[in-house]
UniProtKB/TrEMBL annotation:
Location of the protein in the cell: Cytoplasm
Pfam families xref list: TPMT
Primary localization: cytoplasm
Family, similarity comment: Belongs to the class I-like SAM-binding methyltransferase superfamily. TPMT family.
Subunit structure and binding partners: Monomer.
Enzyme Commission number(s) of this protein: 2.1.1.67
SUPFAM superfamilies per UniProt: S-adenosyl-L-methionine-dependent methyltransferases (SSF53335)
Protein name: Thiopurine S-methyltransferase
Enzyme class (EC, first level): transferase
Organism of provenance: Erinaceus europaeus (Western European hedgehog)
Sorted UniProt keywords: Cytoplasm, Methyltransferase, S-adenosyl-L-methionine, Transferase
Methyltransferase is among the record's keywords: yes
Superkingdom to which the source organism belongs: Eukaryota
Catalytic activity: S-adenosyl-L-methionine + a thiopurine = S-adenosyl-L-homocysteine + a thiopurine S-methylether
Length: 220
C-alpha cells in the first residue's frame, strides 16, 4: 500500500448486532441534504477509486457504469469525460440538481411514467442519466445489485470500518463476513486496498478510528 498513513491494527468488531435494525428512511435521507448534513460527500472524489480506476476499467471503452445512491458524486463526471455511459440513482432531487450545477453541466428532466413521482435528469453534453427515485423500492440491496450486473461485470464496493457501538450510522459498518455471505457465492472478492480514512470531521460521530476498504468483485 502506498498510503503514507500508518494503519491502526484492524480487527473485526464482534458487536455488529447493534446496527442490525438501523434504517434511514427516505425522509431522513432527504433531510440530510436539506440540512447540509452530507459529510459523506467527497468534494475531491474518492481517492481509492481514482487510484484503482484503471484496474476497474481494464482499458475498455464505452462501459456502462452504475452508481447506486449516487448523490452528487464527482466520479460520475470523471467517467463520463472518459467516454463512458453513467447511470445513477438518488432519492434526493436536491443532490442531483447540485451535481449538474457544480459540474457546470446543462441538463433536461422528464418524468418516469412507470414510477409515480420519479424523474430522470439527463446531461445535455455527457452520457449521464440520473434517476430520482428510491432504489429501496426493491427488497434487498445486494439482490438488486446482482440482478443489474451483466456477464463479465466488475463491481467496486467501498466500505467503512469503525466501532459500531460508537456510531449508529449511516454509513453502516459491514464486516468481511457479511460481504462474503451476500456476494461470495456469485463473485470473486478481492480487497484492493485499505487505508486510514479518519478525518477531524468524523470526531462528531464519536469515533477515533475509520478505515476504508475498497473491494473489487468479478464474476466466478
Amino acid at each position: 500500500m502506498e498510503d503514507p498513513k500508518t494503519l491502526p491494527s484492524v480487527e473485526e468488531y464482534s458487536n455488529t448486532e447493534v446496527q442490525k435494525n438501523q434504517v434511514v428512511t427516505l425522509e431522513e435521507w432527504q433531510e440530510k441534504w436539506v440540512n447540509r448534513n452530507i459529510s459523506f460527500h467527497e468534494e475531491q472524489g474518492n481517492q481509492l477509486l481514482k487510484k484503482h480506476l484503471d484496474t476497474f476499467l481494464k482499458g475498455e471503452n464505452r462501459l456502462r457504469v452504475f452508481f447506486p445512491l449516487c448523490g452528487k458524486a464527482v466520479e460520475m463526471k470523471w467517467l463520463a469525460d472518459r467516454g463512458h455511459s453513467v447511470v445513477g440513482v438518488e432519492i434526493s432531487e436536491l443532490g442531483i440538481r447540485e451535481f449538474f450545477t457544480e459540474q457546470n453541466l446543462s441538463y433536461s428532466e422528464e418524468p418516469i411514467m412507470e414510477i409515480p413521482g420519479a424523474k430522470v435528469f439527463k446531461s445535455s453534453s455527457r452520457d449521464i442519466a440520473l434517476y430520482c427515485c428510491s432504489l429501496y423500492d426493491l427488497p434487498n440491496y445486494a439482490d438488486i445489485m446482482m440482478s443489474l450486473l451483466g456477464k463479465k461485470c466488475r463491481y467496486l464496493l467501498s466500505v467503512l470500518h469503525y466501532d459500531p457501538t460508537k456510531h449508529a450510522g449511516p454509513p453502516f459498518y459491514v464486516t468481511d463476513a457479511e460481504i462474503k455471505k451476500l456476494f461470495g457465492s456469485v463473485y470473486n472478492i478481492h480487497c484492493l486496498e485499505e487505508v486510514d480514512a479518519f478525518q477531524e470531521k468524523h470526531r462528531k460521530w464519536g469515533i477515533d478510528c475509520l478505515i476504508e476498504r475498497l473491494y473489487l468483485f468479478t464474476e466466478k
